[in-house]
C-alpha cells in the first residue's frame, strides 16, 4: 500500500501514541523518550490520571487528555470520537500508533476521518478469544473496523498475527511482526537477578514465611482469563501431596472479570497460598526472585510480557500453548507449555518441576539468555523503520 506523504518534510514528524486506560502506560516505558531523542515530536493521548501524568513527566512527553470508556457506550463513544477528531485537527499528526482496544477503535476512525498520513494499530491480543456466539462475532467485527482504518497492524506476537489472519481481521500484507515480538520489549537492567538487594529479598521471604518452601509464583491481574481457577485447583491438589509447596500471588483481583467471587475467598483462606497484593513495577523483580517456578496458565495473551520478565530473572516457567504465551516461552528450553484450561496437566507439571529441580534450574539459566531477544531497543528500532515510511 502506498503511504500518503507529509508535505513538510523539514519539520519534526508528529507522533501520537494512544492508550485507553491508566495501567497501560506500563506497556510504553521508555518508548516515548526514545522517539523524542530520535527527533520526533511525541504526544501521549490517554485519560488524565495521576499515573499517566507521572509517566508523561518521566518521558518528557505532553499529554493529550481524553475521556474514553473501556466498555461499549454509544453516546459516550460518539463524544470521544468528536474529541479525538478535534485533537487530530489541532495537532495534525504525521503518525498515530494506537494500542488497547477502545482507543484503537474510536481513535483509528478519527484518524481516518482526519486523514492522518500513517495510521498504525498495535494489536496486543484479542478479547474475543474467550467469548462465544454473538459476542465473539461482534468483537471480531470491531477488530475488522480498526484494521480497515489502519495502514499497518503491528502484531506483538506471531500467534496473534496468525489468529487475526485466520479470522479475516487483516490481510498478511498489512501486518508487521517485529523480531521475536512483545509490544515494548523488556527492561533487562531492571529485570536482572544480579541487581537484587539480597537483604530485602531475605526480609520478604521471612515476611511471607517462604523459608524452606518450594515457591510457585504468579504476577499479574487476578482475572479469569489468566487461568486463576485452574491455578487454584491444581495447586490445591498438589499442596495435599506436598505441604512444603507455596503459591505466591502478586497482583489484585479485578472483580468485573471474575465469574465466581468465592474463588478469591478460597485463595485468601488457603494455608499454602500467599496473597501479597499488587506491587509497583520496580519491585516486581524482587518478588520474582523469591520464586522457584513462575506459573501463568492463561487462556490467551497478546504477548506474555511477564513471562519474559520471569525468564530474565532466571525463573523457570510453566505456561500454556495459548495465543501470546507460546511466543514468550521456548518450550523445553526455559520452561514447559501445557494446554490451556487443563487443570490435570497443570497438577502434573507442578509435580514434575518439584521433582526435577536440577533440570528446571538449567531452564532458569537458559531463560536469562532467552530474554536477551526482547530488549526494548529491538522493538523501537522496528517501529522507527515503519514510521520512516512517512517522509
Protein topology:
Elements lengths: L13 E5 L12 H7 L3 E6 L3 H10 L3 E3 L8 H18 L3 E5 L1 H13 L4 E6 L9 H17 L2 E4 L2 H9 L8 E2 L21 H10 L6 E6 L8 H14 L3 E6 L11 H8 L3 E5 L6 H5 L4 E4 L8 H8 L4 E4 L14 E4 L4 H13 L1 H15 L4 H12 L4
Parallel strand pairs: 1-2, 1-4, 2-3, 4-5, 5-6, 6-7, 8-9, 8-11, 9-10, 11-12, 12-13
GO molecular function: glycosyltransferase activity
Organism: Flavobacterium pallidum
Protein name: Glycosyltransferase family 1 protein
The CATH architecture designation of the largest domain is 3-Layer(aba) Sandwich
User: What string, H for helix and E for strand, traces the elements in order?
Assistant: EHEHEHEHEHEHEHEHEHEHEHEEHHH
Shape: globular
Structural class: alpha/beta
Pfam family, one: Glycos_transf_1
Organism: Flavobacterium pallidum
Protein name: Glycosyltransferase family 1 protein
InterPro entries: Glyco_trans_1 (IPR001296), Glyco_trans_4-like_N (IPR028098), Glycosyltransferase_grp1 (IPR050194)
How would you summarize what this structure contains?
The chain is α/β, with parallel strands linked by helices and 391 residues long.
Describe the structure.
It is a single chain. 41% of the residues lie in helices and 15% in strands. Mean pLDDT is 94; it is low at 1-9. It has two domains: 14-185 and 376-387, Glycogen Phosphorylase B (Rossmann fold), CATH 3.40.50; 193-373, Glycogen Phosphorylase B (Rossmann fold), CATH 3.40.50.2000. By secondary structure, the protein is of the alpha/beta class. The strands form two sheets. The protein has a seven-stranded parallel sheet, sandwiched between helices. Strands 10-9-8-11-12-13 form a six-stranded parallel sheet, sandwiched between helices. It is built from 14 helices and 13 strands. Pfam families: Glyco_trans_4_2 (PF13477), Glycos_transf_1 (PF00534). InterPro entries: Glyco_trans_1, Glyco_trans_4-like_N, Glycosyltransferase_grp1. Residues 211-370 form the Glycosyl transferase family domain. One of its GO terms (molecular function) is glycosyltransferase activity.
